[in-house]
Amino acid sequence: IYILGIESSCDDTAAAVINNGVVLSNVVATQKIHEAYGGVVPELASRAHQQNIVPVVHEALRKANIDKKDVSAIAFTQGPGLMGSLLVGASFSKSFALGLNIPLIGVNHMQAHILAHFIKTEEQAAPNFPFLALTISGGHTQLVKVTDYFEMEIIGETLDDAVGEAFDKSAKILGLPYPGGPLIDKYAQLGDPDRFPFPKPKVGPLEFSFSGLKTSVLYFIERETGADPEFIEKNRNDICASIQATIVDYLMDKLKNAVKKTGIKEIAIGGGVSANSGIRKALNDAEKSYGWKTYIPKFEYCTDNAAMIAMVGELKYKQQMFSSPDIVSQARMKF
Ligand code: ATP
Ligand code: FE
């Protein structure tokens, strides 16, 4: 069976083909237009999706070396995400399914970030149930207890900003372009993580809060650049390393709490921030220090991609979990 996956929840238009857990193609068109605005502009995102979706799907089918008539079912992101962006993927997928008379499968984007671990790769096996998933992305920060493919329970989440936002907003304060997460990571690798201590917000053991960190970074930078206008240029690597270390430590603290509470030591991360070198290293170290078994997705399956949507599509296809043609996109969506 060949599943075509479509992802259009935010600012990446993506299509992928999967066959038996193996990715045959994984095409992403990232929208550059938002950089100029320092964040995603929803109206511009949906327009760009409209322009990109047909060429991106053609490219995915071509790279997978299949014809559209070979597609067994189409899976698309139902939510959560930006409504105008979601609608483009949903409308395309409904027409495609109707035109070819194949099943339509709606997919939860946050579930997909977790189930991306079931994509077959040479590097790593899939996690064993039950496992703990830490989803860290641009819009979410969640600790999820995963008992089966579609049995997931959120045991903790952020009370305010997502961790990706904490990276991006800190980067913005430092004058870095959007999205700044990957740039903080890049400079952090050259800096001293202990140089500038930032406080870790105190909330419940499985809860997260990042808005205070953003404010501390802002006040710190305002104070220091007041004294020396070139403070950022002179100390960029150390500032980035310190911010990143604070965030990574905080995430690891929460994971330790979750392991303690659930007794589960299979840990999988997902979402765009799992591309971060600091969290990857901390998790690798935790295998030795705490005897955890950790799972880190391949880089291209961390940030938004359609391979993960196709993967969930295949799992649902096997369980005959099909959607009706009147399925509705959801900006906010529970599991
Ligand atoms: P959601 O999945 O919650 O709907 P999203 O789809 O916008 O949000 P993703 O694409 O999963 O989010 O992740 C994007 C986020 O990941 C951005 O905030 C980006 O800065 C961050 N990010 C990507 N790479 C890195 C990195 N190496 N270090 C830190 N943050 C990173
Ligand atoms: Fe995402």
Automatic annotation (TrEMBL):
Primary location group: cytoplasm
Q: Where in the cell is it found?
A: Cytoplasm
Q: Name one Pfam family in it.
A: TsaD
* Keywords in alphabetical order: Acyltransferase, Cytoplasm, Iron, Metal-binding, Transferase, tRNA processing
In the UniProt record, which is one GO cellular component term? Answer: cytoplasm
The UniProt GO MF terms for this protein read: iron ion binding; tRNA N(6)-L-threonylcarbamoyladenine synthase activity
Question: Which residues take part in binding Fe cation?
Answer: 109, 113, 304
Cite the Gcp-like domain residue spans from the record.
23-310
Catalysed reaction, written as an equation: L-threonylcarbamoyladenylate + adenosine(37) in tRNA = N(6)-L-threonylcarbamoyladenosine(37) in tRNA + AMP + H(+)
Could you tell me what the cofactor note in this record states? Answer: Binds 1 Fe(2+) ion per subunit.
- Record function comment: Required for the formation of a threonylcarbamoyl group on adenosine at position 37 (t(6)A37) in tRNAs that read codons beginning with adenine. Is involved in the transfer of the threonylcarbamoyl moiety of threonylcarbamoyl-AMP (TC-AMP) to the N6 group of A37, together with TsaE and TsaB. TsaD likely plays a direct catalytic role in this reaction.
What is this protein called in UniProt?
Answer: tRNA N6-adenosine threonylcarbamoyltransferase
**Source species:** Pukyongia salina
